[in-house]
Amino acid sequence: MCGIIAIAGVEPVNVRIYDALTVLQHRGQDAAGIATTDGERIYLRKNNGLAKDVFQAHDMRELIGHVGIGHVRYPTAGTPSSHEAQPLYVNSPFGIALAHNGNLTNPHALKRELSAKNRRHLNTNSDSEILLNVLAHELAQQDLGKLTPNHIFEAIKTLHERCEGAYAVVAVIPNFGIVAFRDPHGIRPLVMGVRHTAAGAEYVFASESVAFDALGVERLGDLDPGEAVVVETSNRKLSRQQCAAKTQLSPCLFEFVYFARPDSIIEGISVYKTRLRMGDFLAKKILKLRPEHNIDAVIPVPDTSRTAAIQVAFHLGVKYREGFIKNRYIGRTFIMPGQENRKKSVRQKLNPIPLEFRDKNVLLVDDSIVRGTTSSEIIRMAREAGAKQVYYASAAPPVRYPNMYGIDMPAATELIAHGREVDEISAEIGADWLVYQDLKDLVLCGIEGNNTIKQYEDSVFSGCYITGNPEENYLKELEEERGDRAQVERLQSQDETSV
Alpha-carbon distance 434 to 427, whole Å? Predict the structure, then answer.
């Protein structure tokens, strides 16, 4: 999962792109980058680390121009190294810097085509570089004099035919402007906004609308699946066109469960209200299964589950309590390599308040259970803090299947719910009782916010991949590349190299 931002402005954009990246930092903590242009050249700064660490005062001074893009990353394809940080750049035609959120599911076929047929060289293992080179090649194939939005639209039409998977993309072209587009299913979010100034309108594109709040930008709405938008630098004219022959809006359901900030609006749906509804449905199921429950308090696993937990407590008629204090300087644990690292991180990340557990039957509410490491450690901490009974509730259904659309869940064998029934999972994590949200109810939570959406991308729960089956051996290779063993070996290799 990554965060992207693009601004076609009337004044320098470097600081505002940086501000937006800090707001989108929850979408990726591995690397950050900004590319700007003054029309003559592209200025690029990127590196591993958080935005606040990557960009110092002298870096910001060198990011010149009124047009630019930014990216925060955690890796789902490729490796967690600085040369794969984004934006990525190619010099022909015209020079293009690109930032991408998502994951291609046919990268090997595209890589072969780019090398053998298109004569383009790839310098990383990143599927974002593949996407960039497909766009550049399709643009170069046209009869180019003065670059126009129609040239861009024609290139993206062919890109949609070649590229499979999930992609929300922003790009900057010197002396031309900003390009933004989504895949034909609209899996990853991309929202557009405008800021009116005395000098004219500024257009902004971002992964989440919350970035607009920080920049004083008015939200215009989401790009349609398959749609491309071009903002020209010379006159700030906005052109948009549907570039896919067949589309079906299928936003990622896990965005609403976990990744997106609660104060964001995605596809016209309030993430906060969706999580409230998740709590409503979860409480209804608990009351159906255990009408005579003996729960003394509902305690959220901070932070994402708080909204749902409040509703669960309300409907159950029991106290809502904060039982864990969170250290905000520890990253998201399910994407950390190695089971031992994750266990250690949970203990560093959360600390219980014994007063809220001692001699009580507690219901812990989490947004989801992925590998189960966090859940089992939290349950152990609750017992050590004096809880009599520890019940566990997941506001999402069991995560049983790998994700291939941009979320780092590649290895089915590392998912605790894969191949296990609920009672087995409960025993594995050490809960006295475990309840999951039903998938049909989770879907209803989203549809209630926007009933024009007919389906969601829910593959981690259902095993159904809406873009069709991936390339042969794709999931196996992704598991080998992004699984625990591979990540731990990679980190050990990096440590040895740095000695």
Answer: 9
Residue % of the chain over a pLDDT of 90: 81
Between CA 137 and CA 116 the distance in angstroms is 13
Q: Is residue 223 part of a domain?
A: yes
Q: How many CB atoms lie within 10 A of CB 234?
A: 9
Is the predicted pLDDT of residue 346 greater than 70, yes or no? Answer: yes
Task: Provide the 8-state DSSP code for 27.
Answer: G
Q: Which domain holds residue 401?
A: 270-493
Structure tokens at 180: 């933004």
Do 133 and 222 sit in the same domain of this protein?
Answer: yes
Position 178 pLDDT exceeds 80 = yes
- Residue at 73 is within a domain: yes
Buried b vs exposed e over 347-361: b needs ≥16 C-beta within 10 Å?
Answer: eebbebeeebbeebb
CATH of the domain at 112: 3.60.20.10
- Summarize the confidence of residues 85-105 as an average pLDDT: 96
Same domain, 153 and 193: yes
> pTM for the whole thing?
0.92
163: annotated active-site residue:
no
339-349 vs 373-384: helix crossing angle, rounded to 10: 50
Q: Is residue 254 part of a domain?
A: no
- CA–CA distance, 328 with 332 (Å, rounded to integer): 10
* Beta-carbon count within 10 A of 310 CB: 17
Q: Classify residue 257: in a domain, yes or no.
A: no
pLDDT of residue 230: 98
